[in-house]
Amino acid sequence: MRMRRILHSGSRPEKVPFLNPADAGTVTSVLCFGLFLYKWLIIIAVLLTWVSADPYNPIVNGSPG
């Protein structure tokens, strides 16, 4: 993790984290949701490859049977 130095008047530089720990949880949550969504998009794409684009196919046609 990168560190920044903050200068206070008359004191030595203090090291603080580049990313606030409270923000790290938010970043982690967004990344987890993105991976979750990506996983389901791949699963849906794989399932759609099994359905042929034949207009007489009931799944493609939209008819119940």
Protein traits:
single chain; 65 residues; alpha+beta; two-stranded antiparallel sheet; 2 helices; rod-shaped
Describe this structure in words.
51% of the residues lie in helices and 12% in strands. It is of the alpha+beta class and 65 residues long. It has a domain of 34 residues. The termini are far apart. The relative contact order is 0.08.
Task: Write a brief caption for the model.
By secondary structure, this protein is α+β, with helices and mostly antiparallel strands. The chain has helices at residues 21-49, 58-61; strands at residues 3-6, 14-17.
What are the SSEs and their pairings?
Elements: E1 3-6, E2 14-17, H1 21-49, H2 58-61
Antiparallel strand pairs: 1-2
Question: Strands across the major sheet, in which order?
Answer: 1-2
> What sort of overall outline do the alpha carbons produce when their principal axes are compared?
rod-shaped
The radius of gyration is 26 Å
Briefly note the structural class of the backbone: alpha+beta
Overall mean pLDDT stands at 77
End-to-end separation: 58 Å
Q: How many separate helices?
A: 2
Tally of strands: 2
Helix-strand string: EEHH
Question: Into which percentage range does the β-strand content fall?
Answer: 5-15%
**Low-pLDDT regions:** none
